[in-house]
Amino acid sequence: MEKIKLCCAKCGFTVEEYVADELAADSRKLKRYKYLKNKSSICPSCLASGRLNELRAIEEAVVGGAAQPDAKSSAAPVGHAEYAAGETPMMDALAGREWPSHTTELKQTGYPVQMYEQALQQRRTQWGYGGYVSLPGVASGVLVRSSARPDITKGSNFLRIMDPCGNFFSADAMRKLCDIADKYAYGLLHLLSTGGDLEMLGIPTENLKPAVEEITALGFDIGSTGDDYRTSEECIGPAKCDLALYDTLGFRYAWYRRFLDDVQYPRFPHKIKSKFAGCPNDCVRGCQKADIFVCGVFRDSPRIDQPKVAEWVEGGGNITLICSRCPGRALHWEPGRGLSIDADSCMHCMYCSNKISGVRPGVDRGVSILVGGKLRGKYGPTLSKVLVPFLKAEPPDYKEVFDCIERVTEIYDEHARKKERMGDFLLRIGMDEFYKLTGITPTPHLVSQPRTNLFCHWDAEEVRPSHKESPCPESEYRR
Amino acid sequence: MPGIGIPTLEASLPPIVKRNYGKWISHEHPRPGVIKHDSETGEACYTVRAAMPPNARVSTATVRKLCAVADEFAEGFFRITQRNSIEYVGVPPGRIDELIARLAALGLPVGGTNRSLHNTTCCTGYMHCHLAATDPAAIMQNVSAMLLREYQTDTLPAKLKISGSGCINNCGEGSCADIGIVGVHRDLPPIHVEKLKGCELPLVISVCPVGAIRPKGPGMVEIDPKRCIHCPACSVACGAFAPIGSADGDGVAIVVGGKSSNTGDGPAIAKLVIPYLPNNPPHWPEVTKAVKTIVDAWVANARLDERLGEWINRIGWERFFQRTGLPMSLKLVDGYDARALEYARSNVRFRW
After folding, report:
1. Which of A374, B115, B159, B187 is deepest in the core (most CB within 10 A)?
2. How confident is the model at residue B185 (pLDDT cuts 50, 70, 90)?
3. Based on the domain organization, do A376 and A254 belong to the same domain?
4. Residue B189 carries which DSSP code?
5. DSSP-derived 3-state class of residue B341
6. Inter-residue contact A390 to A299 (CB < 8 Å)
């Protein structure tokens, strides 16, 4: 079958493609072909203007859209045989040690190993910038990784699959995901990315649609790329932890039910990462990484089961160490009288509950919401800051907590600049202004200490309550 | 097509978790790599944790083997932890030795619980990223192999987490960990004039955190070398400023003392102690040596349950540099933003 391509003269980008026979038969297509061929136009890829080149090529006939990937994958995994050739001394040096090696894994897949080998040899990454792929009906979840070495590989796409509750995978579901990865992709999985997604790597553009269809048919969903809510991460919580202060798994599931659209359709100024930790131990690193961090907290003293603690001490538990390492020095152990906790000194940090069998967190439980954590942004890493110190987390819809999250997101969406992370936004407008915008009642729990400078803003109304008009209107932002 | 959400709890959880959901009352560490949870129903749940390859890149062949192990030992389920370890939940206590032997045959060491080196995490680096200034996966391979004994035994003062990121975007969470290995660029970004036409120049100028990019005539910009902090912000925003970095310019910085837990001294971001080490594949000897130096000094001097950052807080930074023998330099003094003066010292309570 002869194909006619109209390509950019400079970069070779294919603007339109026709089958020669169809072109001759269809007058409308012929008209458009002639129009495009004779017109000086701007290339959508490199933006060079000029006439388009015509290329003619004979290609094998393909019957139907869906049959294409099958025909390709039934012979061999995509690209496997092609790139496996070639010496890989650097990668071999990284294999065969006691620790499991990623290079051994790469070699078992269709991943173009020379990309990695060349990168190690040249001390420069061989992947390239840019790229865009349009998949109708899929607004996020697909990423392009283009190649700076077209002689090795053309580059490909990868999919972000949202991980199930608690990151538990059943072997059956995982095998089916493997089948999809073998059929349409390199056969290489990322279990899991640091953002909490399962990534399936190396999917050629023509395989994207069937891959997405099969993954969603399996009950997994894709999303979490671009400026939207990224995949939320939860700690293992009540599924396998005795310290969880709220149902993180149920919370995350409810979060997806309410915010799924915002995970799959990018619309915010920048990405928003959400993490849900069951207790202040913060196993999900939410305080450092998350724009919105929901952390389980309790307000009363830890509960002490005295006989069990005594049993633990007799069994060799180092109670002196725990008492001396308690951050508030709130723990006191007397052999005859047992363990006591000074409520005024207790910081509810979980240390005693972590270490002593028989001490458990209190029962007045809820969540606190922290905002603005990030690891780069514009002004470097920042820890997240307390917005709401305590809220009751009430299943099944967690309305109060989710309303607060939505309010924070709206404020951020409305006031932040493009490509400004939540933490940078807070730094620019100031925490006081943010509390005002969100309508938070200030409590001492919000600050580690009050300010040391006296440069407060005073509204004219606050200075002279009878004064109707402000002589110098307060600007909306401090800077 | 997308829009279905995540699988339900009912579909994703193994039977032992469903039976005891929210009913756990205590936990203990019977041996390295094994955690025991007791439930109020009287049931005990044994979890076995094993390491995965750096960056958790696994071939489908390996995943199928892991699935077979799950079928045999853990009711057909496994779990991936926050630090990319693989966990088998609900292993019968009598078969733990057998499972550990099976995982060892697959090349996966068991450990990473309690006071040990937890599984090392990193970003994808040279493997699949266009921004990487170094290859954290290869570095983590070397560092983890070096510290294998610390992973398999829980003899450290407290838990030790080591993470690596290929660039200062920190996808690999370098700044979160006790010891973070972060790739750094040192070159100015290039300006490809022919690509500037396709650029949204106001966006590029505004994404620069330090205002180093400024207009220079119509449709042209210049970069102030004194201001550039070598973050890849402009090269991400526009292809005219890419690729950033070079073989000799790129390298590795080391940060220490990050943690997210509220115990001890509370959450902290890691601090820079080595501004630059060269990329030296495949074994990165300078980096592994620096990590070893820091770990050894911590192990020799820290008290029990004292994380790396808390040890430094107790003994002070002057003692840290003295104990490790690392050089102090002007690069480690913050002069960057509004908080810069906070990190300079006001008290004279020195440790000489």
Report:
1. A374
2. very high
3. yes
4. P
5. helix
6. yes
On whether any CB of chain A is under 8 Å from the CB of B309, the answer is no
CA A286/CA A422 separation, integer angstroms: 14
Q: What is residue A69's predicted lDDT score, i.e. its pLDDT?
A: 36
Pairwise CA distance, residues A18 & A235, whole Å: 53
Q: What is the mean pLDDT of chain A?
A: 86
* Gap between the Cα atoms of B318 and B328, Å rounded: 9
**pLDDT range class, residue A320, cuts 50, 70, 90:** very high
Q: Of A243, A351, A357, give the one whose Cα is nearest residue A310.
A: A357
Q: Which residue has the tokens 């939410």?
A: A286
Question: Which residue, among B262, B271, B279, B311, would best test binding to A if mutated, counting the most A CBs under 10 Å from its CB?
Answer: B262
CA distances from B250 to B133, B134, B187 (A): 5, 7, 8
A138 and A213 part of one domain: yes
| Contact call for A120 and B138, based on CB within 8 A | yes
CB interface of A with B, residues 182-221, below 8 Å: 182, 187-195, 201, 212-213, 216, 219-221
| CATH number, residue B99 | 3.30.70.3340
Contacts of A4 (CB under 8 A, 6+ apart): A17, A18, A19, A20, A23, A33, A54, A55, A56
**Residue B170 to residue A374: CA distance in whole angstroms:** 9
Question: pLDDT tens digits, residue range B79-137?
Answer: 999 999 999 999 999 999 999 999 999 999 999 999 999 999 999 999 999 889 999 99
- pLDDT confidence tier of residue A79, bands split at 50, 70 and 90: very low
> Does the reported pTM lie above 0.90?
no
> Residues B209, B167: one domain?
no
What is the rounded radius of gyration, in angstroms, for the C-alpha atoms of chain A?
29
The count of structural domains within chain B is 3
